[in-house]
Amino acid sequence: MSDLHARHRSVLPDWLALYYDNPLEITHGEGRHVWDADGNKYLDFFGGILTTMTAHALPEVTKAVSEQAGRIVHSSTLYLNRPMVELAERIAHVSGIPDARVFFTTSGTEANDTALLLATTYRRSNTVLAMRNSYHGRSFSAVGITGNRGWSPTSLSPLQTLYVHGGVRTRGPFADLDDAEFIDACVEDLKDLLGHTRPPAALIAEPIQGVGGFTSPPDGLYAAFRDVLNASGILWIADEVQTGWGRTGEHFWGWQAHGQSGPPDIVTFAKGIGNGMSIGGVIARSEIMNCLDANSISTFGGTQVTMAAGLANLGYLLEHDLQGNARRVGGLLIERLRAVASQDPGVREVRGRGLMIGVELTRPGTGLADPDRASAVLEAARADGLLLGKGGGHNTSALRIAPPLSLTVAEAEEGAAILESALRTTQ
């Protein structure tokens, strides 16, 4: 393992982050578990950054990939592609967007990049509204709209970005207000902001901020924003790269918690739909999707083998009601973790919904982030057989919990017990 780590460091960028003091090489997985190169078994509560959505080595997906690979892996979008059309039809149907068109990419970053291209072209404006503490990918344009300092290596951008309040409920100038007052204050701030600038192209927002530590506004905030945006024709882009496909349990899409004024104009997706295969994409009304007046293709977006995986994975998710499982098992897990947190003065908040749960750690009595303890908890949990993620806009002090949506009650309890022990030993 140390040899592989040394080789990694000699040929890959210094900024390519690795978890753990002694980084882990995962060699195989099954269900909700993975194994490392030394044969150690782990309960996976992070799913390759929310990407292993249904299960590791899901037979239905591996069979679909194998069979498709035996026929043809790739031909590009210059040729008709039956699996791509079939998956696009299914996604358009479940999107909630009328007359929806779907464009496939290879990642969430590329999906958000495409959404920005569509919105700015359609609106003839390079001004974009984004949320504070947000993250939308690692491309030049996506970094330019990222509101999280830890993931924004440059201030240069092809876009003019204006950052809006509201993505973090329990911090900031409106944190002490009740939910209705919080929404009203954020709306008034948005109105004031729009009064000082030319009309932007769009607001892009994660319904639950992923890298930001699984923070979210009160339900209904983006519906209230939408009323203001509609008055000026400003588009709403919902970044569903982490929240889509039923992960939040209560809804199939994260935007549906804010859907009182209808679906977004554009939805971006990625991660879980491929269950590990590289699929991203954009859903938009046809008039927006078709606004480009130049040719375009995607060499690898929509390639046959990834589309076969997506079709099998989405079919399994819907047929086995994994959204319902996320609601039931996730609800139990959140309550279990809140009970643990009540005994730990260093846990500021347990938040989230479904199987998308954040545990924010702070120095007791101060409200200040405690990234060192977050790292220590990750190490302690790993030692006992549990893999977690971390994030947050306040020095990466939030633990991120997002296991495959097929997680069982017994596995949720096992993971919670390991996390409880890790929290106790790091106090």
Task: Describe what you observe in this structure.
The chain is 37% helix and 16% strand. The protein is α/β, with parallel strands linked by helices and 427 residues long. The protein has a 7-stranded mixed sheet with strand order 4-10-9-8-7-5-6, with helices on both faces. Strand 2 and strand 3 (41-44) form a beta hairpin. Helix 11 (322-341) runs parallel beside helix 13 (409-425). The protein is globular and about 55 Å long. The two termini are 30 Å apart.
The overall strand count is 15
Helical amount: 25-40%
Structural class: alpha/beta
User: What is the average of the pLDDT values?
Assistant: 96
Indicate the low-confidence ranges by residue numbers: none
Number of helices: 13
The proportion of residues in beta strands is 15-25%
The largest beta-sheet arranges its strands as: 4-10-9-8-7-5-6
Task: Give the overall shape.
Answer: globular
Largest sheet entry? 7 strands, mixed
Oligomer: single chain
Secondary structure: elements and pairs:
Blueprint: H1 2-11, E1 26-30, E2 33-36, E3 41-44, H2 47-50, H3 59-71, H4 82-95, E4 100-105, H5 108-123, E5 127-131, H6 140-143, E6 160-164, H7 179-194, E7 202-205, H8 221-231, E8 235-239, E9 266-269, E10 280-285, H9 286-289, H10 304-319, H11 322-341, E11 347-353, E12 356-361, H12 371-383, E13 386-387, E14 389-391, E15 398-401, H13 409-425
